[in-house]
Amino acid sequence: QVTLEDTFEPHGLAEETIAQLRQQLTTDTHLRRAYLVRKKISRHPERPCWVFGFVATPPFHLFSVARVTKAVQDLQASVSLPEGTVLVNVENANTPFEAKLKRVASSQVL
C-alpha cells in the first residue's frame, strides 16, 4: 500500500538500469511522464519497495480509466520494473502523488 503520508527517497538504481527503463518506456508505452522512487520502510528495509508513478493522459484530453487500465497492461507486459514495484497513476484524484514524487531527487524517468 502507498499513501501520501509515506516517505519516498531516490530509487538508488544504476544509471544503466534507468537508461534501459527509459528506452522501454519511450518505445513500448504511451506515457507522458513517469517517476520511480523507493518507499522508505522500517519493517523490512532489506526488501525494497519501489513506487512507479505515471501520467497516461495526452494533453487536452479528458482523464479516462480505460486509458489508465491500458497503460498498466502495457507496463506489465513490456517494461522491466524492479520486483516489488507498485504502480500508481498520478492523475485525477491522485495528482497530489505527482507533486510528492517530483520532489524526490532523480525521480523523473520519463
- 3D shape: globular
Chain-averaged pLDDT: 93
Low-pLDDT runs of 5+ residues are none
Q: Please tell me how large the radius of gyration is.
A: 13 Å
Gap between N and C termini, in Å? 23 Å
- What is the count of helical runs? 3
Instruction: Estimate what percentage of residues fall within beta strands.
Output: 15-25%
Largest beta-sheet characterization = 4 strands, mixed
Question: Which strands sit side by side, in order, in the main sheet?
Answer: 1-2-3-4
Total strands: 4
Structural class: alpha+beta
Approximately how much helix is present in the residues? 25-40%
- Output the helix-strand order: EHEEHEH
Describe this structure in words.
Strands 1-2-3-4 form a 4-stranded mixed sheet, with helices on one face. The mean pLDDT is 93. Strand 3 (49-55), helix 2 and strand 4 form a beta-alpha-beta unit. The protein has helices spanning 15-28, 65-78, 95-102, and strands at 8-10, 33-39, 49-55, 85-89. The chain contains 3 helices and 4 strands; from the N terminus they run E-H-E-E-H-E-H. By secondary structure, the protein is of the alpha+beta class. Helices cover 33% and strands 20% of the residues.
